[in-house]
Design a protein that fits this description.
The chain is mostly helical and about 475 residues long. The chain is about 80% helix and about 0% strand. The chain is globular, with a radius of gyration of 22 Å.
């Protein structure tokens, strides 16, 4: 059985068939996976908020930005691996797939090890640099150091699920995440409520719950077609594949790091408005996470779809898929935004009874969500562009739009008037700047001129 017809391990060919049905069938399991992941994160915050109080909730919130800063760089490597796998799958190259799969798993293990060392050793210093208040600092340190002890299985799972998604399998990650989430919530209740371990207990529950998905995703990879199934003894770094993954992944990771870095600076400014503002912002980003995960699911599904079609040299199908994905992302995110706007107070009350925290969360929702569709469009465009392996220009655009423009707006706004709404308004401002730059780059077409796309088209023409 050739790669084009392969179904072992649940993979599927995205280079042929009805586009909207394929994207929907592929994206929905991934969407549910992301929503489940966000639900478990939300449940984690709700348990801590009710059992520990606003201080525990603020501690987790202060860690979120820092965790994102440290993790996102290495998640970029996972993005590079997914793109390499999707393109190799589209080219029907079993030998290349074998090398990419084993190289990706090796990079996942090394990334997790590096994150564990960096996170545990540097997090107290970094939290100090973020002006974390003294009454929150001990809880934040306990949370983040325990959290990073689970990085090796977490990165292996992310890398493995990215490999499966690139080959059209988005169902397996959903099943693994569902199991892990149930374990996470159960351990949360035991560690935080039953044993009274506070924020460290919540972090420990998250770290331990990552073990099972990592084991399951490695097992699934070992069930792929014989030519490219995972064999533990052959996990190694192949030079060409490692170079390509890093070349694509580092700029993609830096893009996410730059966004996270700007969020760390934003969090530093928010910390200066006090405990209630910190707790309110934590609530907002927990709720906004449902929106982000929805958009991210469709964007990553589009990256896999476009990656396979780039490998096959099919530009027209790539363009059609991008239009379908845009409609899906806007439709689903609009529904979630409407629900959050209408039911803001009841939803926030699930997490805390503190009226100040609810006030700040509601204020941020009102200022950000009406323009969230711009952010949605940006993520879909990025998903299409990254599939070609062209990740440097999106990184530069993000540097200017999401960092320079956002932080410049914040500093200028707070200089004029010391009001937290200046921070809130910086987000839609940065989305608009980023969107204008992305549209310019996208329509000029340079992103579809990557070497691997030219090679794929040339190979297809030679075959014809």
């Amino acid at each position: 059985m050739g790669i084009g017809a392969a179904r072992a391990g649940g993979v599927q060919d995205l280079t042929q068939g009805v586009i909207w049905r394929q994207l929907a069938a592929f994206a929905l399991p991934f969407l549910f996976s992301n929503l489940l992941q966000q639900f478990y994160t939300t449940a984690d915050a709700a348990i801590v908020g009710q059992a520990v109080g606003a201080g525990g909730l603020a501690a987790i919130g202060s860690c979120d930005r820092l965790i994102g800063l440290l993790i996102n760089f290495f998640l970029g490597v996972s993005t590079g691996a997914s793109i390499a796998v999707a393109q190799a799958f589209g080219r029907r190259s079993q030998q290349e797939l074998h090398r990419v799969v084993h190289t990706s798993v090796a990079l996942g293990i090394l990334s997790g090890l590096a994150l564990t060392v960096i996170g545990v050793a540097l997090s107290p210093t970094l939290l100090r640099m973020m002006d974390t208040p003294e009454d929150v600092f001990p809880l934040a340190v306990h949370y983040i150091q325990v959290y990073f002890l689970g990085m090796i299985p977490s990165m292996v799972y992310n890398m493995g699920s990215g490999i499966l998604r690139a080959m059209g399998n988005s169902q397996s990650a959903l099943y693994y995440l569902l199991t892990a989430g149930i374990i996470n919530i159960g351990l949360d209740l035991w560690f935080v409520v039953g044993l009274g371990w506070g924020t460290a207990g919540a972090a420990g529950a998250t770290a331990l719950s990552q073990l099972l998905p990592a084991i399951l995703v490695l097992r699934k990879l070992s069930q792929l077609e014989e030519g490219y199934r995972l064999q533990l003894r052959q996990i190694r770094l192949w030079r060409e594949e490692t170079a390509y993954i890093i070349r694509v992944g580092i700029p993609a990771g830096l893009r996410m790091v730059l966004i996270s870095f700007s969020n760390v600076i934003v969090q530093t400014k928010i910390n200066q408005f006090g405990l209630e503002a910190m707790a309110g912002v934590t609530l907002f980003f927990r709720l906004e996470g449902y929106l982000y995960m929805t958009v991210s699911a469709i964007s990553l599904a589009l990256t896999s779809f476009c990656g396979q079609n780039i490998g096959a040299g099919n530009l027209s199908r790539l363009r059609q898929g991008q239009r379908v994905a845009t409609g899906m992302a806007l439709g689903i995110s609009s529904l979630l935004i409407l629900l959050l706007l209408v039911f803001t107070v009841p939803i926030c009350s699930i997490f805390t009874r503190d009226p100040g925290a609810i006030y700040y969360a509601r204020l941020q929702i009102l200022y950000l969500l009406p323009l969230y569709f711009i952010f949605t469009l940006n993520e879909v465009i990025n998903g299409a562009v990254l599939s070609s392996g062209r990740s440097v220009t999106p990184m530069v655009i993000s540097l200017f739009g999401m960092c320079v423009a956002r932080l410049g707006f914040i500093y200028a706004g707070l200089w004029v008037v010391w009001d937290i709404r200046a921070i809130y308004l910086s987000f839609p401002f940065s989305w608009i700047v980023t969107h204008l730059l992305l549209q310019l780059y996208y329509h000029r077409g340079h992103w579809v001129q990557g070497q691997r796309l030219r090679d794929a088209i040339a190979g297809q023409s030679a075959g014809n």
